[in-house]
Amino acid sequence: MSQHPNRARLLISCQDKPGIVSAVSTFLHQYDANIVQSDQFSTDPEGGMFFMRIEFDLGNSSPDFLRFKKEFHTLADKLDFEWKMELAARKKRMAILVSKEDHCLLELLWRWRSGELQVDIPLIISNHPTNKQVVESYGIPFYHVPVTRDTKEEAEQEAINLLKQHDVDFIVLARYMQILSPTFVESFPYRIINIHHSFLPAFIGANPYAKAFERGVKLIGATAHYVTDDLDEGPIIEQDVLRVNHRYSTQELRVAGRNVERIALARAVEWHTNDQVIVYGNKTVVF
Amino acid sequence: MSQHPNRARLLISCQDKPGIVSAVSTFLHQYDANIVQSDQFSTDPEGGMFFMRIEFDLGNSSPDFLRFKKEFHTLADKLDFEWKMELAARKKRMAILVSKEDHCLLELLWRWRSGELQVDIPLIISNHPTNKQVVESYGIPFYHVPVTRDTKEEAEQEAINLLKQHDVDFIVLARYMQILSPTFVESFPYRIINIHHSFLPAFIGANPYAKAFERGVKLIGATAHYVTDDLDEGPIIEQDVLRVNHRYSTQELRVAGRNVERIALARAVEWHTNDQVIVYGNKTVVF
Amino acid sequence: MSQHPNRARLLISCQDKPGIVSAVSTFLHQYDANIVQSDQFSTDPEGGMFFMRIEFDLGNSSPDFLRFKKEFHTLADKLDFEWKMELAARKKRMAILVSKEDHCLLELLWRWRSGELQVDIPLIISNHPTNKQVVESYGIPFYHVPVTRDTKEEAEQEAINLLKQHDVDFIVLARYMQILSPTFVESFPYRIINIHHSFLPAFIGANPYAKAFERGVKLIGATAHYVTDDLDEGPIIEQDVLRVNHRYSTQELRVAGRNVERIALARAVEWHTNDQVIVYGNKTVVF
Amino acid sequence: MSQHPNRARLLISCQDKPGIVSAVSTFLHQYDANIVQSDQFSTDPEGGMFFMRIEFDLGNSSPDFLRFKKEFHTLADKLDFEWKMELAARKKRMAILVSKEDHCLLELLWRWRSGELQVDIPLIISNHPTNKQVVESYGIPFYHVPVTRDTKEEAEQEAINLLKQHDVDFIVLARYMQILSPTFVESFPYRIINIHHSFLPAFIGANPYAKAFERGVKLIGATAHYVTDDLDEGPIIEQDVLRVNHRYSTQELRVAGRNVERIALARAVEWHTNDQVIVYGNKTVVF
To answer: Where are the catalytic residues (chains A, B, C, D) (predicted)?
Structure first.
């Protein structure tokens, strides 16, 4: 898990055209950067979209990262890339929004403390005080921002302010149970990850376990996705399922489901953290 | 896999009430039948539904099966059971309806020939001649009953007649791709098993793989269910899923999906064959 | 998850013979106990072993539990049962032994606090002080019992004394990383559950992830088993696996493996807690 | 699934060093070849081994494939590559060796006929006549080469001769149940794929299902691997598992295991067919 101190990651989206890999890899070689891993994907080799992720190590004679990025900018403009380049060592700042249930929260906190999840967590916001103590035992500031029907707008604004003040890179809804307004969503485009407690698009909306019980399904699932204005319709990052049977009550489905929810969410967060996800249209490429 | 020649299976559904297990097991013991396996399930121990499946071997001093059944009838009436008792050695008569795609058909035929699926297959019906040769190579009569918009009703009637003439116990739609009329469905209540090529209730209706591609799901699934008048809404017997990613085209999802379809269908058929499935409401208990 | 206050569980092992189910269910019915769930298994219906697990609710006219048990004793003696009867409400006393790694420990603590795992945890023992703080934040006494090559015997004796003083029902080795002496094992027969970090019997002994890396396997696994005198050879309760590939270093296998270890262990502990496991020979029946 | 008529695949193994991706992608671009997919893997970015797989489409101004290959040869020599370049349209010639059990054989034949498996099958060899009819119904020549203790050497020689006469690219042991001599193995280095009916390295050698039954495992598995001189020790290509429980007899494990065997083998064969597998040491990289 130890890695080169100058390990960097490059994500590229563009119209497919000949010579992209050659141009990029030659650029990297020319500036003494060594490709450690690369993945690419074309929706259609003849005129579709092209996506690429490269991990590379800057070398002894590479320029410093800022200048390196600036040089790449020129190439990227010429080839009409949408792109992003990050040092792996730069930890993203992740906020967590949570309600009363703690299983997704704890999963993220454990992985963070064990070093599996390489982020900083400047704050955790909840509409309930329930998880205050556990959050603070991890040394993370906890903000209780209650939400009622009447104060929803102000509460959201307060949350947005907190998130901006703490300069967060992305937000995880770890079973937050509140529908975010378009204003909130647009403040963090494709930077809010939600866990929905069903195998989308089955059981959109509230009470998916009750609906799953009603329908008599033999597997239950969970879906981690980016939040957009359409409820439960954002780009899917990860899904997983668990076998159940006729013996499960709605409540037992809910309890069993926690294990799929936290694992699927943790995977999605890890991939986002490692710059492994590119959104296109309403889908994701996960490298 | 070899089993006692007088192995029998008993399925019971009734209102839950005290003493059912005792009454049934005492009956069996009294008539020298030895319980080999038993499963039971109550939706709610206080006043819900009770379901039970018992496998037992008739003993040397048991009456013959017909008389045994008649004796049980008296008990069942007293306790207000819905019930079914079958000798395991009595092979069910299974018909297969298939269209052009052969993966589900071949899976069933292979399991049948290898002895995994203990049924007789008196006939296979298709609306296309495509699979005639392979079916006949297994020594099974193949009936080509073409269906067009104008002849749908007569074609269905022809199929029903064939199925009745061949005295079938149940029917498997192994990717038949035709919607059955209420008349057809009512002729074989809870005795028609369909395989739907999605993880229901996601992607109900036509072209589920195209819809799955569109939505960008990370798992695709298949659902084996009993056919009712509501399209894709019948009681689910079995579901399974397969991990996919952004690289799969609709056509590649379709190809990969075949493997989930045939496995999920084969399991459902096997459970039905072994009298392991009880329908209640719009759900199944699978023992 | 709420349950009848007089819910009880009965486990039976004996030589198979006719009439067992009838005798037991009639006994229960006669004392106004209502069977809620029952499972049984015969290794061979003709003269093998018979195993049974029944959940039942004592009724209004049932005798109290102690007398009920005493009455059953008479029947059990007559039919030559090995048996165990427990009130579901009686929480087992579980000790955890842990070393430095905390993932299995935290999984159990979370499930305990969320109410999924219905046990009391009177103490946690570790040969390292690492996890003292987290354990105490859950309000559980933490005992640091260091083990060195020279003090192993005394350390074990100290641990045994602590476990006996706290009257524990069973012990979970949540990555304890110490081989227990026969004396220790015999003090708690089939009441010590270990998690081995491989898919046994592959990679018995130390460093299974290094061995898995070396062998180039495509799945890694974990095995929860009862501890016996033969290292990694005790009866298996649960196993699970995770897909890996050539990109995983030994260290990355180790990190990924944590997720299989904690889930497999948690399942095994839950089954043990709910009296769902019967040991026979070197195997388990899990009802 | 349709693809560019001039789609080609390039596999490279070499010592890792800077500039490889750049050199290869620039070569391809320079000869008007468009990269469709590429994967790479370094065992250690600083001085380990480097592996790469590129799919590309030759363009209108590319030289013909033979000249293209020759040009690449020069680059490959300079950079000290071990490499392989193949047109995707060139179907590999696959032989199948089979004994009596037909499940793996049929799985391959179905996938071949449905177009999932893009190979030619010039012959199938068996030491038993059992599967003659089914093989010939697919229009494939069947050779019965009986093997007895005394004739093993001649029989092997006859098989080798048949395989060479039919100019096969690789051989699949679809439950062949005979141990091949070093002479045989060396005639087709890393071009023989076997399916072992256990999760290796558990249960090496004969009767793995009997051993799995004896050990009381909760999952059974299958392993597809290249054959080397060390029995069951060759590089693993794919593994899969299936959940079982105490109710499975050895025979039922065997029957259930067929489904894992055929799926794991089919995947391994497909990956080999598509030039997705590189062997290094005793492991595989599967791109």
So the answer is: 232
